[in-house]
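From the shared-data thread, chain only:
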Amino acid sequence: SHGSSGGNGKYRGKGTWYKPHTRGACGSMDHSSEYIVALSSDIYSGGKHCFRGVRVCEAGSGNCVNAKVSDLCPGCKHQSLDMSPPVFRALAPMDQGVIDIVWSF
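Structure, as tokens:
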């Protein structure tokens, strides 16, 4: 069904980066040195995934990294993630700006 990825199903979207420095939507104080991501609002679903672990991979290279859900990204399209600098850097050079990602909880 739409909106369900099953137990280990993968989401596909765009990956961008931001510098967290305030209290995230999940309520924790976030720092740009942490491995955290912000979810698109359709998946954020009022916070039901807060602090869950995610595995994010860059679609082309296959580079992967583990991170934690900590925030909401209102401007992110369906299934896309906004990532802290260390998460993005593990996948691609920062100056790439936007990458294709595959990810799962």
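The chain is about 10% helix and 35% strand.
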